[in-house]
Design brief:
With 335 residues, the chain is of the alpha+beta class. Among the domains are: 97 residues, conserved putative lor/sdh protein from methanococcus maripaludis s2 fold; 79 residues. It has six helices and 15 strands. The strands form two sheets. It has a six-stranded antiparallel barrel with strand order 4-6-9-8-7-10. A two-stranded antiparallel ribbon has the order 3-15.
Length: 335
């Protein structure tokens, strides 16, 4: 009986010893294998890598939002007197004067060019004919020529004055043809954008607008004009933004917060959470297969929102770790 008990005890000890060896072996095998000076990290199975969330990086367009303070510089309303042209209500009285004077000069030019000068030209031809038949004197011819010359001078003066008022309207952000063709209910916002950002916007771009007077409402507008001049002091450029069907509640002089989406270009970009920095160098961990990560040094650019532009070190389609990155950093660098 004693021998039988000793035999059973020996079997149990042997089984326990084997079990401990197997457990030890399994624990040893479950550890990741670090190689190539920490560049490569291999895990024993796919279950071990499920902790690390990844994403594929692509070459995509990067957009940023530029925020600017704007002001309703003009609104368009229907004339109550039945005029064929809508009324433009300017916030700046000088621009209102310029626009009024411009319209008057256009009327004067039309009168001089299409009526006065034509009449004088007809009179000149008639006087020449009469002179040839002895019915008009040389003085009569000179008088008609002088009258025609006077009308031509008046036309030149009117055109010069028109250009002056047009230039002032342009510098304020308005092109006369836009104002002439503007529909009633349109509001025009003027805001400034830095010179170094002007290449990123174009006519037709949409923007989001919120007015101080109506903080709970959002409006949408389009850039329909970029002034062809830069302020020498501020290095800013004026943008004109049209808000259509804005209703009568928008008034000239109201302030607005304008948000414009700016295209930064097409780049490979990564989540800021995927980047690790060690001794001034930037790295990401690329998943090369289902159980292996590889440390890769990259050259980065500007951070825009939560995305970072990558200039070199990666290819579009690479799959990188975005969660568990600090654990990979510890394994790779031995922390």
């Amino acid at each position: 009986m004693m021998k039988y008990s000793i035999c059973i005890l020996s079997v149990l000890i042997l089984f326990s010893s084997c079990h401990r060896k197997e457990a030890k072996y399994a624990t040893k095998e479950s550890k990741p294998i670090i190689s190539n000076d920490g560049v490569s990290i291999s895990f024993p199975d796919e279950r071990s890598t499920s902790f690390f969330k990844t994403e594929k990086v692509l070459n995509t367009d990067i957009m940023t939002n530029f925020e600017a303070i704007g002001e309703i510089a003009a609104t368009v309303v229907t004339s109550s007197s039945g005029a064929s042209q809508n009324l433009i209500l300017f916030e700046n009285p000088d621009l209102a004067t310029n626009y009024t004077q411009l319209i008057q000069h256009q009327i004067n030019i039309n009168q001089i060019q299409n009526i006065n000068i034509r009449q004088k030209q007809i009179e000149l031809e008639r006087t020449k004919d009469l002179q040839q038949h002895g019915a008009a004197t040389g003085q009569d011819l000179l008088n008609v020529q002088a009258a025609l010359s006077m009308e031509q001078t008046n036309l030149a003066n009117e055109r010069a004055a028109l250009i002056e008022h047009e230039a002032k309207l342009e510098s304020g952000g308005f092109h006369p043809s836009i104002l002439r063709n503007a529909k009633a209910g349109t509001a025009y916002i003027i805001c400034d954008i830095p010179e170094n950002q002007i290449s990123k916007v174009k006519e037709g771009d949409t923007c989001s607008i919120k007015f101080t007077a109506f903080p709970e409402e959002k409006f949408s507008g389009k850039i329909d004009g970029i002034v062809n001049a830069i302020d020498n002091t501020t290095r800013m450029v004026k943008l004109r933004i049209g808000v259509n069907k804005s209703s009568s509640k928008l008034k000239a002089g109201m302030f607005a917060n304008v948000s414009i989406s700016l295209g930064e270009g097409s780049f490979i970009n990564i989540s800021k959470n995927s980047l690790v920095t060690v001794q001034g160098r930037n790295y990401v961990f690329i998943k090369t297969n289902s159980t292996k990560f590889e440390r890769r040094e990259i050259q980065t650019g500007q951070q825009i929102g939560d995305r970072i532009i990558v200039f070199s070190g990666m290819n579009s389609g690479d799959e990188i770790a975005v969660e568990g990155v600090m654990q990979l950093k510890g394994l790779s660098f031995g922390y």
